[in-house]
Design a protein that fits this description.
402 residues, mainly alpha, three-stranded antiparallel sheet, extended
Length: 402
């Protein structure tokens, strides 16, 4: 058991301090919640902790889950009256990401030197992007930093779930394709050569089906390195072509037209658009600045062009619903919900509900794609194995009949 020092706050704002014995930091949080109190600061008293602490991860990025945890912690601590510098230092001691720890300590030092929180964030754009900095500025301007961090934490949790769903959908076909390649490789290296040496010992003429199969195998065996070089050359050429302006735009078009995947990509964009818009609107960020942030978050040229067109229409005096209707990227549901939000004066809440709807649609699209790809891949694997078995065992059956 470890001893933890805690500072808790109840709904009336009254603070409670003391110590509590528990196995972990999380256990203290659960205990505090059961008491109906909000954790402001939880710190292990054991001074040996720093000496025995496991080595921190030395990575050059910060995950969405780490960002969500950071926002929840700093929002809770600042809401309880802890200063921002003390909050940053306490959180940095507790995280296991060395890169993130150094970033938070640097921000704390800059704030002590006289910088605002948002200005300090600008020095670390890889960790705190334009979206985060806009939210921070809105929080500083309104004086509602704890509420802003709470919204950020909720946003990052939703973003992490969205990306996991999309990555899962895109990685499944790759996994199955890799499995097919593995089966073909095993057959080509271990099974077929043994049968080939056995066939060469026979004087009988092989069946036509087996002859064609073995001819294809011989051709691939002789030219496998050339084929590999061609594939690598095509991949490198495609990579450099995608870096050009026309190449990147054509690739963006292609991605949005791919069967099965286009619905996933479009639903993913709409979910992100609605989530980000809702979060920024709740914090008081302007429409044009919100659209600029969303555009910076997206790498697809076609989607970026659509957002640019929306910005132009709004600058000309159109409302949001009319502006997004002018593009072909948004379905009628989003347009109608935007109109409802404008009429009721609650665009942020409407976009939040819309994002949840499209999140469910995205999950449905992923399940549907998986159900369609699974039998196709199984048929492909089964066909490869069946053709190989027939080609290899047909001569054996033919000779046994003789």
């Amino acid at each position: 058991m470890k001893t933890f020092k805690y500072i808790l706050r109840d709904e009336s704002g009254k603070q409670y301090t003391g110590t509590y014995e528990a196995v972990s930091h999380s256990e203290v949080i659960v205990w505090a919640r059961c008491q109906g109190r909000i954790p402001v600061l939880i710190e292990e008293l054991d001074t040996r902790k720093k000496k025995s602490r496991k080595k921190k991860r030395n990575v050059k990025h910060v995950s969405l889950s780490e960002m969500a945890a950071f926002c929840w912690q700093i929002g809770t601590m600042m809401g309880g009256g802890v200063s921002i510098t003390e909050s940053l230092e306490t959180i940095s001691d507790d995280i296991d990401n060395e890169y993130f720890e150094k970033t938070l300590n640097s921000i704390s030092e800059d704030i002590k030197a006289g910088s605002t929180f948002t200005d300090a964030l600008k020095k670390h754009p890889k960790v705190f992007n334009t979206f985060f900095r806009a939210m921070s500025l809105a929080g500083e301007t309104s004086g509602n930093m704890p509420q802003v961090f709470e919204r950020l934490a909720d946003y990052y949790v939703k973003r992490e779930k969205l990306l996991k769903d999309v990555k899962g959908a895109l990685s499944y076909p790759c996994f199955v394709a890799g499995f097919v390649v593995l089966i073909v490789t095993v057959m080509g290296l271990l099974i077929i050569p043994r049968f080939k040496s056995m066939f060469e010992m026979f004087k009988n003429e092989l069946p036509a089906f087996t002859e064609v199969y073995m001819s294809c195998y011989d051709y691939i065996s002789r030219n496998i390195w050339w084929m590999g070089l061609i594939i690598i050359a095509l991949w490198i050429s495609g990579h450099f072509y995608s870096k050009t302006i026309n190449g990147h735009r054509n690739l963006s078009k292609l991605v949005l037209r791919l069967p099965f995947f286009n619905n996933i990509i479009i639903n993913s964009f709409i979910t992100t658009f609605c989530q980000t818009t809702s979060t920024l609107f709740m914090s008081g960020v302007s429409v044009l600045e919100t659209l600029e942030i969303i555009k910076a978050m997206n790498s697809n040229d076609i989607i970026r062009e659509s957002i640019t067109n929306i910005q132009k229409r709004i600058e000309e005096g159109d409302n949001i619903s009319s502006a997004i209707e002018s593009t072909e990227m948004f379905p009628n549901l989003v347009i109608k919900m935007a109109q409802v939000g404008e009429q009721s004066g609650s665009l942020s809440n409407v976009f939040d509900k819309t994002s949840e709807q499209f999140q469910r649609q995205l999950e449905g699209s992923i399940k549907a794609m998986t159900k369609m790809i699974e039998p196709v891949m199984m048929m492909l694997v089964g066909s490869l194995v069946l053709v190989t078995v027939i080609a290899l065992y047909l001569p054996v059956f033919t000779m046994s009949d003789v």
